[in-house]
Amino acid sequence: MNLLSSPATFLPDGALELIRDAALTAEKGRDLAPAVLDLIYREGWFKMLAPRRWGGKTLSLPQVVRLEEGLAYADGSAGWVVTLCSGAGWFAGFIDAFDGLFSDDRLCIAGSGSVGGEAQVVDGGYRVRGSWAYASGIRHATAYTANCRVMRKGVAVAGADGQPLIRPFLFLPGEVIVREDWDAMGLVATGSHGFSVEDALVPAERMFAIDAAAAVDGDPLYQYPFLPLAEATLAANISGMGQHFLDCCADYFERRALPDAVAMLADARAELAGLRGEFYRAVDRSWEERSAESYAAVGRVSHEVAAKVRGWMDKLYPYAGLGAAGYHTGINRVWRDLHTAGQHPVLVFPRS
Question: What is the CA 123 to chain-centroid distance, rounded?
Fold first, then answer.
């Protein structure tokens, strides 16, 4: 596969046009359009990281990042929801239960990576309460995940490293209250609302650990570490939106006859193309080598992709003029989507 193919080539025929045509309607409705959701379900994209034994696709990471870049190139909100919800579907590889839940053709797991709850050890499992923000795709969720601090008799349980034990939990729809509080300037149609759980009794088998040693599925996908997987999938979204933004700039700059801006755009395309190739080489290598060095390279280049796309976006956007400030123009939407996606802490803060 040509590393520098347009992100559109990573999508099935007709998907780019369908998603782009629905993007404005989705933003106005603050949710993915029904036609786009139908496409996602038909292609099994919410389940692309879920185990095959439950009807998942269990795609390799190189396949996943290319598809996600293509989706984000079509529309930031569509790419983001698929990325975050399919990423939560990856957790099914670490849970050895709930065949009916995970085999659902419309499986969609929404969740949060923050530690917003406490899970008190009780007979039969855990008594959980908490509140979490930014669960993308939550309106379509059939299940939810969230991190909790494990407690026993009001005292934090220590893990093997002596630090407070943090574990993700799986919640079912009747246990979750959705807050409808997503009002960010970009990624509007992701429906990234917060949610809470109030004093739910959660069985012990719905607590799990995200660690290769804890995987219950034997596919190599579940031996790949979480952090570089998260970095790569989020960077693919930034890259896809960035490529869309450059295309939008080309349209505006040509109409306005701005040769200096066109030259600057050419520089941006050249630098980001080189970085994009480096990104894919790093991801592909890490998938084959499975080494600490290759995982670190994925993290480094993923952060660089996010930083360079943000930098070029802010240099180029003013040259598009006031016409690009229209809230429902494509260039304005992708500019807002990029600035919102760029706030994700995984790609803002360097590795510790």
Answer: 35
